[in-house]
Amino acid sequence: MVKRYFQLQWLYVKMDLAALLRDTKFMIICVIADVFMSASAMFGIFLLAWRFDGIGGLGRYEVLLMLAIAGTVNGTIVMLDHGNAACPSRIIGRGQWEHMFIMPLPFSIQMLVGFSPFTCSGSFISGVVMLVIAAVNLTLSWWWLPLLIAHVLVSIAVTVGLSYLVSTLAFYAPVQCEEISSTLMNSLEHTSTFPLSGMPRYMQAPLLTIVPTGLIAWLPTLLILGHVPAWANLYPIIIAAVILLAATFAFKKGFKHYVTKGINRYHAGGHRN
């Protein structure tokens, strides 16, 4: 299965390259537009930080580092997301989940395979460019890059884990919850770009626990900059593990309900019948 997984990933890369070469000029324009769109969506906060010489105790380029981490996390998910793999409630709500039953691959392989490094790299490129600019203008320790990569992976786990956790509801209410995961992903993408440093504790606490958007970019930024104790590096890992365990348990329970009860899409008057 491992060999088959990489074969399928390579197939997706070739198909993505073929899409780029089929109309190169158009696709390059789309990628460039995506780069500017992703950067402009976050630049408002950076301009505020530039105007006021920082926000909430973070300097100009420290804020840029936080925005870069958020952009890199989102861009990586977009590049690896094929067929709404990061938003499974769409697949469930549209009745496409049972289409995967007949595929000669496990569900995990079907959901994990998909890589579009050419046509879906706009957000990732903008994040990396901002990251380079921030790193050049900051004094960082020698181990900042491995720490950054680790936190990006943890942030991806938090984001996707939350998406799968809420997508469980689509097994029980497919019509109402078809877009619940995409709504959550959009919310996390925007709220993760706000620095929480200047907020009171009672506002920071829920954004680090109940809806942990602060773990996606803000806390990793503080950890990379050394603004908080080193032991705090364990906190995002613990929360990510809890979210993944909860998502796994809930998803399996919802899947069992789906298998035994079916989906109302195929009932009389059902969704998109």
Structural topology:
Layout: H1 2-22, H2 24-51, H3 60-80, H4 88-93, H5 107-112, H6 122-136, H7 144-167, H8 169-172, H9 180-191, H10 201-208, H11 218-225, H12 234-261
Helix pairs in contact: 1-2, 2-3, 2-6, 3-6, 3-7, 3-11, 7-9, 7-11, 7-12
Care to describe what's here?
The longest helix is centred in the N-terminal third of the chain and has 28 residues, at 24-51. The chain has one domain. The chain is globular and about 55 Å long. It has 273 residues and is mainly α. It has helices spanning 2-22, 24-51, 60-80, 88-93, 107-112, 122-136, 144-167, 169-172, 180-191, 201-208, 218-225, 234-261.
Distance between the termini: 36 Å
Instruction: Tell me the number of structural domains.
Output: 1
Mean of pLDDT = 88
Q: Specify the structural class.
A: mainly alpha
Low-confidence runs: none
| Multimeric organization | single chain
Question: What's the helical proportion of residues?
Answer: 55-70%
Brief rundown of the structure:
This protein has 273 residues and is mainly α. The protein has one domain (2-266). It has twelve helices and no strands.
List keywords for this structure.
mainly alpha, 273 residues, single chain, 12 helices
